[in-house]
Amino acid sequence: MRGYFVSFEGPDGAGKSTVLKEVLNQIGSELKTQYLVTREPGGSKIAEKIRDIILDPANDKMDNKTEALLYAASRSQHVEEIIRPALKEGKVVFSDRYVDSSLAYQGAGRDLGIQEVKQINDFATDKLNPDLTFFLDLDPEVGLKRIEKLRPGQEDRLEQENLAFHKKVYAGFLKVKETYPERFVTVDATQPIDQVVAQVIATLKQRMPELF
Ligand code: TYD
Question: Domain total for the chain?
Fold first, then answer.
């Protein structure tokens, strides 16, 4: 059986990590193939070190292109060391964020251009794209409020950006989503978590019946 690559995207505070964890809690033992859960930025030892540099609030002088290249560098390592080998072994890979985050945050949020950021990511990943992407759809203002409430004073460098930035990121996600309609599935992330989880599981069963 071939591997299958699923990514989770959305604005900060949409609940990706919680949803992903709960989805695997519920269906992990049902899956016919082995699976791997990973995240970006990070996912491997070197990639996690790059993550620390990117997200450190002390690095407030980081140039936008430096930021985009560091995300891409971290991703390149993650893809070569973790994702590709797992897919080759026929595993299902679930990633908390992937290239679409760079297109939205660096391409749109930082105004570097979605196409430009796509190019460096095509280079970094040798054009490895997810088979399926869940977009957890949430108004960025609501997302930031959730984070403030959940972990006050602990926002990372990107989360600390103002609402205008996060609105641009959100608009970027919508554009990216329109560009790849066959791969994106939008889930309303204002719903209670168990409904979000149920919708994700139903979609996985419908799109990847061979895995159940
Ligand atoms: P996130 O997954 O939200 O980390 P956590 O849930 O642990 O706080 O990712 C951290 C931040 O990095 C988030 O604000 C989104 C941002 N990001 C980018 O700007 N570009 C990228 O390519 C990726 C993967 C993340």
Answer: 1
